[in-house]
Structures are given as C-alpha cells and as structure tokens.
User: Fold these one by one.
Assistant:
Number 1:
Amino acid sequence: MTTASLDTLKAQVIAAVDRRREDLIDLAKRIHAHPEVAFEETQASAWISAFARDAGFEVQAPAGGLETAFAATKEGTSPGPRIAFLAEYDALPKLGHACGHNLIAAASAGAALGLVEGLDELPAAILLIGTPAEEGGGGKVILADAGVFDGIDAAMMFHPSARTILWQHGLARRKLSIEFFGLAAHASGSPEDGINALDATLQTFASINALRQHSPTTSRIHGIITDGGEAPNIVPDHSASLFYVRALDDASCDALLERVKRCAEGAATATGATLKLEMLGSYKALRTNMALAETFQANAESLGWSFEDNDPMRRIGSTDMANVSHVVPAIHPYLSIGPSDMPGHSTAFAEAADSPKGHDAMLAAAKILAMTAVDLIHNPDLLSAIKEEFATQAAS
C-alpha cells in the first residue's frame, strides 16, 4: 500500500476519534470521579464494556477468571493480524486516579473505536482488553497465565506521565510477605517470658537497609509494616511486613529476593521468632518492542508530539504490562499530561488526569495507537520485523 493510501486511512481513524471526542472525555471523567481499587473496578469495567458493545464489539465479561476483566473483539471483514489495545482502570487507595488509568482506559477504547468506525474495510481483528489491578494486583499476569493474550500479534497501550518518552525500563518486581510469630507476655512484668515478633521485623528492616548499600543502583527494595502488635504493654506475638523487591532483569531480581529472605531468616534466628515467607506475585522485566515503538513515535510526531531524549533508568517502576511483553510484542510509551517535575502517584497527578491537558493527551494517544495499528495491518514487512524482534528477545 502506498504512503498516500496509508495517510488516507490514518486520516479516517483520526476523524473517527474526533467524532467520539466528547464521549471519550466523558468516559475518562466518569472513571476518574468514581475511583475503584484493584479487583473492585465493577463500574469502570461495565462502562468500558458497554462502550465497546455499542460499537459492535463482542464482549466477554468476565474474562480470564477475573470478575472485573473483559475481552471485547471485533472480527475484521477479512483475515489479518490480531491487534489488542489494553485498558487499565484501577485507582490507588486514597489517592484515586493518581496514575492516570482513567486516561489509559479511554485512550485504548478510543483507538479501538477509531479503527472499527473509521475504516470501511478492516482486514484485521481488533481487541479491547480490560485489565484490572495493575497497581499491585497483577491483573495482566493473571490474564496472561489464563491465555487471554494467546494468538495476538501486538499489544499496545499508552501511559500518562510528566514527560513524553518513548520507552523506559520496567523493573522486574517480586512481592514478598514476611510474618513473624512470637510469644506474648507482659512487656513490663515478665518480658523475659516473651518472644518479640516486632523485634524480628525491625531487625529485618535494619538488615535490608544495610543490604541496600551492597545492591546494584538499578535495584529497589521497599516495604511497610502491616502489623506491629496490639499494645505497648504486650510483647507482640505477631508482626508482619510487605516488601517489593525490584531489579533490572528477572535473574537479578530473584537473586536479590533470596538475599532479602536471608535478612528475615537471620532476624528469626536472633529473636527466636518463627518465620513465615509468602510470595504474593511477580512482575517480569518489561521488553519494549522497538520496531513497534518507533512506529508509534513516527505517528505521534506526525501529530506534532516530540519525544524527550530519555534516560531509561530515570523514575523507573514496574508494570504488569511486562508479563504481556513476554507473550506478545508490546509497547508502553508515555505522553505528558503535566509539568515535567510532577511526581507520579500524587495529588497533582490525579488532578492532571482530569484536566484539559490530560484529556488532550488521551485523545492524541487514541489516534496514535489507531494509526500504529493501521501500519501493522497494511504493512506486512513491518509486522514481520516486529515478530522477528520479539523472537530474538525471547531467545536471549
């Protein structure tokens, strides 16, 4: 297909998104105004599913064993690649949509609708997949394990940010629960009869703090105490904490996790408390498909967006999109919705996620994602390059 022909098709999907402008903004605002935390996103899931159903998608809900997940599919007019847009819509406890997932949901919905409503002929299958619980719950991990992404040729989403960057590392992450069981006693009258579970937790934190000095600068260890006892005059017979262990790749993350476990084991030995360790989930390290990302970049630049020169190690976190990227070629680019010094997971970010600039970025993302899909559908050489890169990454 000629460049002029592709440009015509892209203009059609852009026009389709523009026709849905107010609907998409309304969807983003509704989700923002009704924040729902991980695995509880009943309203958001229902709203987006209805949006897709009204556009002619066949909606499976729930999906992958998750009550608030869904998979909406629009089969093409002829066979072709299967392209998925992923919608996140969970909020953060107390902060609400301080990561902008309301914008992610609306952008992915807009991209899917832009394709099915903007193209007369659709030689592809378009999927809109609702993925709950990105914030710590690992919804995409569960969906990937259930086979929801099997048979898909490319998976795409955008993420709102303080900066416009094409990609950055997504750290491998392990979620670890640490519990200690001791023996209660009167903290003043007979402390020698007790075994202090809280002391074991505090010693674990102290050991991990020392471990940080001898860990790679690309790793992260952070935790909270979730149970520290009942009263100051009772030797705590139970104490618990929750840790995230992160590293640049999966092997390094697993190695660091073992060292964290040994910190807890040492604390148990020192205090006499009984230790219980439980893994609560893992995120893999993100694999960005650069052939797909560069296609997204070219389409974004055609709409006037410019990408910063990026240090991929700056402000890095983790995402369950990483697990998807090990199953199917995937991208996770970022568009700015606020000032460059705006921190993520903050009140300022939540406000930006419901601002005119946030809505403009969401609409732009919908267009860019849909335009990228047009390239995938009508450029077999590009799709082959994307798949070849994915196979190379998987073999490394």
Number 2:
Amino acid sequence: MYKLSYNFAVSLIVQLINVVKHNNVTLKYIQIMKKQLFFFVLFLSALTLFAQPAIKFDNTTIDFGNIKEEEGKVSKNFEFTNVGDQPLLITSVKPGCGCTAADYTRTEVAPGGRGFITATYDPHNRPGSFNKSIKVTTNEPRFTEGGNVPPHSINIRGSVEKRPPSKFELAGYANSQGGDVRIKDGNVKFELFTNETKQFTIKVMNFSEETSKFELINSLPNYITMEGVKEIKAGEEVEITFKYDAAKRGEIGEYKDLVVFTTQDPNVKIPFTIDVVIREDFSKLTPKQLQDAPKAHVESMTLDFGNVTRNTTPTVELKLYNNGKNPLIIRQLKSSNSLFSVVSDKNEIPQGGFATIMVTLNSRSRRGKQNATLEILTNDPANSHIVVNCTGEVS
C-alpha cells in the first residue's frame, strides 16, 4: 500500500511538472492536480503516523497454583503477538522480588509474529501465597516519546507449600551452613577492653553416618587459641572453646577474623567469623591524668554532600580538634558504607591542633539517597567513640 501510494504521488508530481513545462493546460486543471497531490501527501503522513508496533499478551496473569518449596524454581511463559504493523522489540523486563525473567524474545518480532517472556519463581524460604508483577517496556512510541508512561504489567501468582523441616532445623541448626558437619552459629560478636581476654564456645554437630574429621584450614593468629576435637563421631555434637586475647592483638577498634574448617568432604569449607570491638580501658587513669587528657571535638556531627552526579567522587572535609593538654591519637576511622571512604592527614594531633579528615563519596552508578555513619575512635577518655552521620543524594 505504501509503495503504490508513493508511486502514485510521484506520478502526479511528474504530470504537474510536464503540464507546466509544455504550458498546454489551464490554470484550473493545475489547481485540481495540486489538491490531489496535497491529499495524497496528507494520507501518506497519516499512514506513517499510525504505523507502529503493538504488543498483545495472550494472558497478563499466570497462576502457578500450589507449588512445593522443596521442588525448587518453577517457570511458565507469557506469550504475546505483535498486533502492530512495525517490528516490535522488548527493551526492558523488570521482575519483582523472588521472580526472575532472564529469558525472553530479544530480537525484533515482525508484525503478526509471536514472542515470549519466561517468568520464574523461586519458592525457597517463601512459604504462603505470592503475587508478583513483571514490568515490560517495548519500542512502542508511547515509551519512546519521553513521557512518564507506566510499563506493561504482567503478573504471576500462586501459593507455596512449606517444605518439611530438615534434619538440621530439627536439631536447632536452622542457620547453619556446610554439608553433613555443621557449626550451629557461624558468627560470634563481643566487646572487650585492651587488657582483657574473652573465652567462648561454639557447637558443632556431625549429621552424617560416619566419623568425620574437623580441622582448621588456616592458621590462627597469636591472639586466638582453640581447644577442641579433631574428629566428630556420627550423630555427635561437640563444643569447641576459643580464647581471644586483646592485649596480644595490641590494637583498638573494630575487627573481624575469619576461621575456616574442613571436614571429611573435601569440597566443603565451613567459615566461622569473630567480630570484636576492642576498647581502651580508661578506668585506671588518675584524676591528674584525666585532667590532662586529650579532648576530641569535631566541627560538625553531620556531613551533607548535597546533590551528587553519578560516577563522580566528591570529597567533604571535616576538622577534628584537640582541646586537651596531651596529644590526641586517632585509633581508627571507619565507614559503615563502602561508598564512603575516609582518610586523615594525621593520626596524632598536638594540643590546640587539628586534623583534616577527608570523606569521599564514590557515587558509582548508584541513584537516590546514600547514607553512612563515620566512626572515629580516639584516646579521649570522655569521648573515645565519635559518630558522624554522612548523607548525599545521587542523581
């Protein structure tokens, strides 16, 4: 149709030129031909305007029915037709939590052609009913004209039947990791002063039907010692004792140590982490020492980066003053958010002096509000732990 209409319009133009060229027709006839040409150009413009792709789903909701958690992921296809008269292309597929749609028609779908979007739901640890949406954007003009048009929405629903409790859960090892030999709690947290030691135990159980070894892969640092078995019998639960010596560590601040065990299964590695906060003990300082102690003061308890452009790294400075009589020592600088890095131009501040702490926000490809807490540990007996709030809006 487009070709015929175009050829006819060209034919009219040629005729009009020839008529004018040979001067063998009346002005009235020329005007009639010009009107015909105008209407055909208008007709072609309308055809171009309304020529577009259009997606039509066979169903916009798929019901998975009742599914069993222990059977794992389930998938079904949303099929669609391009009911438009231009090629259709899916430009974006954004599924909701627990749902994925990694597989879909990624090439152009011709007018009248068919395509699909595969929706997969993972029922693991999600018992009960679910209703999830998948947002679909295409090259249809309504999405490409710059308006705030909501995407197409397709939905999955169903109900997950909770799996029966595992042998690990029945024994109280619900949060454990590993194979048939497991640590009941893979993490321990505690605080202590620089002159203290901390003793704690962990429980380990062998759920297999034969004796298994239980040995360290990595060597322990000198401030951590361990006492316990190197073998665990079938079905046996044992306790392993650790001792943490802060004095031997010789540092102040927050630290993490990773301990890794191996079992009879060479492919299984069992990690265990120790999170510790070591604080300075000021309890033995004399009144004179307290009077002459350093005094930490920050110029602001908040750092606002304001509006930050993506993939930039702005830096904001913060001054830490020493208003005491002895040098102020920065024991540790720590940020709760990896996007915010922090360094100081000095670690020891003399009486009446200050240090410049530089906080950098690496915005990367993030968007929206970014927050962090900056922790400053010092040797000020009255203010050894300072927390500064950092914020920025990445756009």
Number 3:
Amino acid sequence: MAGVALTLVIGWRHEVGADWLNYFPYLYEVEGLPLLEVLQMPDPGFQLMNWISAELGTGIYGVNLMAAALFTLGLFSFCVGLPRPWLGVAIAVPYLVIVVAMGYTRQGLALGMAMLGLAALRRKSFATFGFVSCVIIGATFHKTAVLLLPIAALAASQRRLATAIWVTAVSVAAYFFLLEDAVEALYSNYVDAQYQSDGAMVRVLMNSLPASALLLWWKRFAAVGVTSIWRWFAVISIILQAILFVSPSSTAVDRVALYMLPLQMVVFGYWPDVIGRGKPARGPMMLVLAYYAIVQFVWLVFANYSFAWLPYQFYPLTLL
C-alpha cells in the first residue's frame, strides 16, 4: 500500500521539478513513430516508455507513472534487505525520492534499477547476473548507469577471476553499445562547458561522511551483516569528494555521485546496531530521523531550485 501511494505521489505530480518542461520533447519526438525505430534511438528504454504513453494518450503523466513504479520497486526491494526497512525509506525521502525521482526522471529510473540490482546481490544464485542485468536495463534509461557495472566484479565473493572476466566483457560491450556515442557530447556538455551544480559540495559530502564512518568502523559494520561491496561504494564516494575539488564541472561529479546514494541507507540503516551494541535502537534511530528532517528543512528553505517543487501539485486534484 505504501509502495502504491509513493508511486502515485511521484508519478502523478503536476508541474513539479526543475526539469519538468525538459521531458516533453522526448514525448513529442516518438509520437507516431514505429516501435522498431523508437528502440533504435538513444536511451531506448526511456523512449519506449514515452512511445507507450503516447500510444495510450496518457502524455507525460503516463511516462512519470511508469517511471515512478519502477523506481519505487527498486527502492522498496532494496530497503527490504535492511534491518529497518522503513528507516531506509525515510532516509531516501528528502533527496532520493523528492529531488531525484521527482526531478531527474531518467536518472531516477536508472537508480531504481540499480537498487533492484543491489537487492539481487543478496541472493545466493545468479546474484551477479541479476545485478548486471538490472544495471544494463537502467542504462537504457540513462547511459551513465553503465559506470556501476565494474562494481559487480568487485562484489564477487566466489569465482572472482571468472566473474571479473565476464563482467569486464559485458562492461566493454555495454560501453560501446550504450555510452560510446554519447561520451563526447557528455564531456562537452559537462566538462568543457564547466557546468556547476548549486549544492553539489553538500550533496557529495552527504555521501562521503557515511562513507568515512563505514571505513572507520568497518569491523563493526561487517559484524552486523554489511557486505564488502559497500566498502567499494564508500571508497568511490570519498574519491568523488576529492575529484569535486579539482573538477571543472561540479555537475558531472554530482550526477555520478547520485549512484552512491544507497550507501546512506545502508550506513544509517545499520547505524543503530553499530553504535548500540545490543542496546535499544530507538535513540539512534531518532537521531538519524532528526538528521534527515534537518536535511529536508534546509533544502526546502535554502535550495536555489526548491521553488520548482513548491507547492506540490497532484495531477488528479488539478483536474478538479
């Protein structure tokens, strides 16, 4: 029920998000085209969603609803594996849900599929295959998801050499089929243009702080069930923090750092167990919730583009 409610809130938003108008050209571009031609376009997964919605006559709201359903499926599948699933969902709300899923539709889709893949890694059989499959599907919505593929090789606990070989082969193939043609454009649009994202430093810092805590107290986290893949997420988060200081484009670093957001749910989801050591978890949980309440408040009041989310409008109600 909560998943359905969240899907509707994300998917049936009306004129919400700084990029609201930027997604209409995708819809107009595929109207009337044959399906085969749509699947040959860049970002074929997202183009397919637009084509389906255009054929059904549901417009941008149909696209957003389908995107919201996939994102929510990934988020809830991921949070079910945490010791406190609802705490994980609460942690996701201020930025991952409100800003990413409601603002960056394509990257929100890619992140939803990435979280579904991370949930697959908990399985004993075909875990790596499941992760790789989800990431590749995510890359059909936003090409940058391909950057997550090498993590599958790093996360392998058995047959590491064989896994590294086939994951490397898949990563190279995915790069040539999905990313190669866009690399020059991405570099030109982000690095050469020196795009800057307001608040990028704060957002990247929100990943590097829990990353530092995980690495500092790794033995405690490992003792309560955190797997080694999250050490790699932590290392990558800290590297991105360092790159941000020298990169000509904070936007490029900011967009890559979005894929590290699940680290926050893991670190703070296990935090009560790590610092509580068998004591009641209510106190640490309240501290985590208070922290993210402050994050939400600061963003709503001080973020330069939060006005694009205010007031939130629900499409069915706007019809009334």
Number 4:
Amino acid sequence: MKIVISSNTSWSIYNFRLNLARNLSKNGYKVILVAPRDKYSEILEKEFDYYDVFMNNKGTNPIEDFKTIISYYRLYKDIKPNIVLNFTIKPNIYGTIACSWLKIKTINNIAGLGYLFVHQNLVTIIAKKLYKYSQKKANKIFFQNREDYKTFTTQKLVDIEKCDILPGSGVDVNKFTSSNKEKEDNIFRFLLIARMIWDKGIDEFVEAAKIVKKSYSNVEFLLLGETNVDNPNSIPIEQIKKWEKEEIIKYLGSSDNVKEEIEKVDCIVLPSYYREGTPRVLLEASSMEKPVITTNNVGCRDVVEDKVTGYICEIKNPKHLAKKMIKILNLTDLQRNEMGKKGREKIIQEFDEKIVIDKYLNTIKDNI
C-alpha cells in the first residue's frame, strides 16, 4: 500500500509531517514524499522515497498552475499511489485534481487560510472557486480549527459529510518538554517565532516592545524566523536591521532547532492576524511549559486559555499587547511556572500529535 504525503515545500514536510510519515511507515505503509525541491529534500531522501514536483509558490499564473496539475498527473501515473495526503493550498487543489483524473483517493488538510483570506480580492474569489471544484473530488477533508471548518461548510465550498477537525498538526509532547534550567541572568526575554511577514504581528510586537522598554530595562525582545519569504507581505531585512540598530529587538535569524531557542526565553509571543490553522509554535512553547501571549485570532485563541496558560490580546493593538507583556513581567516566578504547567496539561489533553496520527491512520483504513 503506497501513501504519498505532498506539500508545497520539502521544508514543511520536514518540520510538520515527518512524524506522520514515520508512523505510517511503522504501520506497514510504503510512504512517498512529494514536494518542490529545496535544501530539505536531501534530508527527506535519506529516509523516504522523495519526488520533486513543479510548483510556483509565489504566484497565481494559470499556465504555471496547470503545469503543476500535469506534473502531479505524470508523477502519480508513474508511481501509482493508493492514497495521497495533501497539505497546503496548491497540493490540496491541484494535487487533488490530478488524483481525480487517475481515480486516486485523497485526504486533504486545510491548515489555515493564510494571506488569501486575510486580504480579500479577486484572487480570493478564484481560490474559493478552485477549492469548491477540487474538494468535491476529495475523499476526506481535515481542518485545523473550527472557524475554518465553519467558513468552508457555510459557504458550501466543501461537502460537510467529508469534513472533520484536527487539533492542528499536533505536537510531539515527548520531544517538547521543559528542561527546567536555571536562568543565568535576570533578563526577561520575549520571543516571536514566525516567518517575517507583517501579518504575523511583527510590527505590533516591535511597537509593544517600545512601550514596555520605557518602564523596564531588564527585558529583551527577540525575533526568530525566515526573511525574504514568498509572500506579498514579507518584511525586508533592511527594516529588521533598522529595528536592531534602534535597539528595539534582536533578530536571531532562522533555526532548525526551535526547541533550543524556546528553552532560552521566558515567554513566547505571537500577535498574529494571519489566517492561521493552529500555530505550531504556540503548541511547542506550551508543551515546554512556557507562558504564551497571542491574539484573539482564528487558530491562535484555541491554544491558549486566557489568564490560565497565557494571555490573549486584541488584534493589531500594540498597546493592549504591551499590557499583557507587563502582566507577564509582574507575575512571580511561581505564578509563571504554574501558568506553564497548565499550558502543558492543555497540550497533552488536546493537542498531542498522537491524536492527529491516529485520526490519519483510521481515515486511511476507512479508505483502503
């Protein structure tokens, strides 16, 4: 039994789907990974069969998108998978269309609606039509939060009987645990981990940092994540360097070891107004017993129990974000530790990766 896992980057498979692939393999399935080639493809090839597929993640050129469908069609006609698990927009749409031509079953994961659904325009209308057409051909559709599920079902973009909700991508609670290391200094560190795009609330984080720094001197504000990403709202590296020069934030670059970076800080902040699925960084941070601050935004609010595991702030409101940061700062170590412990309890109960993997295993069995 051959199962394909397809996404829009090898990076995303490596970071978000590797444990799913490994568990499918342990259960006797032949797992094949399909994504455009990037620097993570070589890592994937060491463990699984991997195939490149043509995909332009930057644009919406219909000719290039048709090439993507043909690329999928030719590949799947050759390797003959039994089921394809699609992740991210273009595999969900174009991979599913190609599979329907070959009568291959598909299980899709709509993990946040991203830029398209934040900035409503002609492209959004086209995307919805493509979703509606393609998802009729899917065998199962998973959503990562109730709001996205409601959006798609109420707008009749999907057949409700095909749909189910997952607790995000889940998190490996055995890997993301607290180290309980003693702090080496008295500096309190807030860290925002995300791709460097405006919709992740980067500007709000910077503005809130300015407010907090007026009253507190022993505080650092850190940014971690890729710059120059394929997104119209990408933040230029020059802007980040300007903030650094003004001593508002420190930019840590990008990292393949997010766990190590989370361990070094006191609180994770994600002031996103991006149309999230369920942000992985909030799951990982909470699993590591770190208090978190995030916005009252789709996907984000599902992870945090306000005033218990962290704080929820208003969207696009740096003053409100700063207030929540100051609240965290004014807690005792004992109170912050208790908040972190409550966060991990919530993750284990609701967001353990095993829940997601078991749902996939059961769905695959149902579709064999």
